[in-house]
Amino acid sequence: MSLERLWAGWRHAYVTDASEPAQTGCVLCRITGPGDDAVQLVLHRGASSAAVLNAYPYCSGHLMVAPLRHVAELEDLTAAESAELWSMVTTSVRAIKAAYRPEGVNVGCNLGRAAGAGIPDHLHVQVLPRWAGDTNFMTSVASMRVMPEALPDTWARLRDAWPAD
Asked: How much is the pTM?
């Protein structure tokens, strides 16, 4: 049996950055703060929320919508923040459908660490495309996911598909 190789050269930047000292503070606050949207993977900014790519996606096209204000609880959003957040979730679904033509879309929040939140102190809504049979043996056997698209390519694809305001 020959050894199979799975090339993911685009991950070199992540591996290199992983050896750098950990940054402090909230990752979502850093990402949605001032900076280059392409570098920070910000797809769209609103008055009180932003849509950003998940840097550790379950699949290509996996994004998050988060309030700009550092807030953990859904019920602590103002009416205006809540309205914009959910409007941006809807727009995110439209962009994912246009860019990827999935058979379904998962939308959800994990509120609190016990609910599975990876960033429990900053509320965010996960939005990701899904296809029938989109899991494969790599996840169950090798505990890994194969991403068919580099994050900068995903960012460009979704940015191009983002509906005009």
From this structure: 0.80
Beta-carbon contacts of residue 55 (< 8 Å; ≥ 6 apart): 14, 41, 151
> What CATH number is associated with residue 79?
3.30.428.10
Q: How many domains does the chain have?
A: 1
| Spatial distance between the Cα atoms of 57 and 151, rounded to a whole number of angstroms | 9
Residue of 44, 62, 122, 124 marked active site: 124
**Residue 124 is among the residues annotated as catalytic for this protein:** yes
CA–CA separation, 11 and 144 (whole Å): 13
- Which tens digit of pLDDT belongs to each residue from 13-32? 655 555 554 567 889 999 99
